[in-house]
Amino acid sequence: MLTQDASLWQRYQELKDALHTHNYRYHVLDDPLISDAEYDRLYAELRQIEADHPEWIAPDSPSQRAGAAILDKFIKVRHPAPILSLANAFNAEEARAWFERVRKVDDRVEKAAFTVEPKIDGLTVVLHYRDGVFVQGATRGDGEVGEDITANLRTIKALPLRIPPASAGGDAGAPAVRPPAHLVVRGEAFITIRDFEALNRKLEEAGEKTYLNPRNTAAGSLRQLDSALTASRPLTLLVYQVIAWQENAEQPGVDNAPHSQSETLKTLRRLGFPVPAYDHCADIESAIAACERRAAQRDQPPEEGGMAYEVDGAVIKINDRQLAADLGFVGKDPRGALAFKFPAREVTTRLSGIGVNVGRTGVLTPYAILEAVEIGGVIVERATLHNFEYIAEKDIRPGDRVLVKRAGDVIPYVIGPVVGARQGDEWPYVPPEACPACDQPVEHVEGEVAWYCVNAACPAQLIRNLEHFVSRGAMDIVGCGIKIVEQLVQVGLLHDVAELYTLRKEQLLELDGFAEKKAENLLSAIAASRQRPLARLINALGIRGVGEVMATDLAGVYPDLEALGKAGLEELQQIEGVGPNIAQAIVDWFARPANRELLAKLRQGNVWPQSEVNHPKAEANLKFEGKTFVITGSLPSLTREAAKALIESRGGKVTDSVSKKTSYLVLGENPGSKLEKARTLGIAILDEAALRDLCA
Ligand code: IVH
To answer: For residue 524, is pLDDT > 70?
Structure first.
């Protein structure tokens, strides 16, 4: 290898190491060390090297997570040992009965200790590692033979492509452990409840079909042939069992294989796998108590002991692996473990009607109005019906008895009708032809399942738009909740989001519940939102398919909304993550006359952030080159940093003290002694508006 190549090769290895470490810190430990942007930079550097040296790309390269060639079909894989299932118990009595049965088989069980783990409701996966590198992954199949889904599994960020993921010794967070020559582990791939809900929100906004539940989504994502699609799904993983552990034959005498279940989980964790939190229980009664505690906690938020993902029970395992193995099986169920199932959260109730919500993009979403029913300690009166197609497919009729499921914290959904319980007076549901909020005709977009209200002045859409505009990920107008938004629209004070910035105190004081203080607080929160960075404003506009991440990417390319509005379809599609649909949605949004008017109003209202990034589109505008600025006092809408970024993006320099070399003093409220000095030296003074004019 040439010297130059040798050092590049070394840099390539460093990058791989660093990316594995940071990936592990983020996705397994939930404790990142660097920002997403820094990660992206390292990744881009790695991709560049791989583009120049494709011969260096190994299966453990972080780039292999992006998805591979589309397959025709999955290949079958025989598992090294049967992938067993579990016997069930539905209450403490049945768990005690299981204990009595196994105690009779082997009296060591009398004194056995147990672990209790969550029973994760996902898709079972079997992962193979050779010399620490992930080489193959399969579904469970019939327990003997599964399907090879390696390319799909590689896309899961929590799955280590090599173990340990971080180099030995570094401050990587994963202590050094030597992996065995061949290791096969079993775990569960799944989607967390939050990620599932976010995914469905995104799909709903894009007018696409939403998913029924996290489990089906995870299973569907892993069992399809295009791994690039899998990569776009928020799958994650927990690993809990060693199926095979083979040490290197050249090192006789070495045997690090774990001998108990608690040791298994600790070892897997040390190797870099994400593992579930478990309880160590000295006897069966404390194991049962642990299961009952987990059952009671499952409805709480994760911070209070609830689960971030769906569980359908807890698993009690005899801790001693040898004893568990000696106990053998009954059919496909090992005697040494038991699933303690939690009560199913499915009930039947009457569907009294079907309501229709109007989203901010105008999507109409049907929901079920139910006769109130308790599911797992919560009274449920509403449930999702996904979309009109779902209602037709399942033939769900108002008046039906329906089966409703609540899983984790996910909004309950209607599984389907109990057809046998029909009285004969239930009629198929007909979707509305007019928007339930504004009574204008609804439209269907070719190729989408959704129906839309396309009336730009629809009050329901405006309320949803405003709700999104003021939300935390967008303009973050503190204290402006849904109630206030509804009130402002209903009394006719707001007709679009820009009118927030022209609200006056006298107007607010006339409203119910508004006193001096509340009005002032709201107005100052609105004023403060002028300082939000461009990415926030792009997100706030609510363009279909453009969420927080995409908005940040766009703000990295375009200096302001004017530049973004001028971008064409082709150009937009050059940006990573922008496909033809999103590009079209952006172009359409800026072409709509109502939106152009809105932009003009925002600009006039000084809601016109400039991107703080140095990006290609801004380079041409270097009108401040060679000019030095000093800022004093607080500006009405720009923060100090934003004003500095604005000046610097045009080639100007910002310094702290006024001197003869200063070109401009930017003057805000409550200025300091700098103003005096600037006056003495005869330096040009600008307020924020003048600065903006100068920038344009
Ligand atoms: S142990 C011999 N532990 O539940 C060991 N299974 O029928 C048998 N599952 O699809 C499995 N979480 O994949 C075990 N912590 C956990 C689990 C778990 C979920 C799944 C398993 C199988 C089903 C049991």
So the answer is: yes
